[in-house]
Design brief:
The protein is mainly α. 64% of the residues lie in helices and 0% in strands. The protein has helices at residues 2-6, 33-59, 65-97. Helix 2 (33-59) packs antiparallel against helix 3 (65-97). It is elongated and about 60 Å long.
Length: 101
């Protein structure tokens, strides 16, 4: 499932619970917008994969319930942020396409 997600861009500016935002969230001056989006997407995919791996470890009894909940909630937050940003981008594109030239 996550291999298919790897080819899709998504955004995570929050990262795992209790961590500071990534460098991509604070856009480094002079960096290309597409590069910033690529970095954010990579971070988001990593967060979702980490949440899935921790959940599997929890099922196997190798991880505590607290770490499983924290990882799954971080993955959920990442997915919600990605969906919200995707919706805003689609809305902006539709608005631009309706403009008279």
């Amino acid at each position: 499932m996550l291999n298919a997600i790897g080819s899709v861009s998504s955004v995570d500016t929050f990262g795992p619970v209790g961590t500071k935002p990534t460098a991509a969230a604070g856009a480094v001056a002079g960096s290309d917008f597409s590069q910033v989006l690529a970095n954010v997407a990579t971070d988001a995919i990593g967060t979702v994969r980490a949440g899935e791996a921790t959940a599997i470890s929890g099922i196997e009894g190798k991880a505590s319930i607290q770490s499983v909940v924290a990882a799954v909630m971080a993955a959920e937050q990442t997915l919600q942020a990605a969906v919200s940003i995707r919706d805003k981008v689609v809305s902006a594109y539709q608005e631009i396409s309706r403009m008279a030239i």
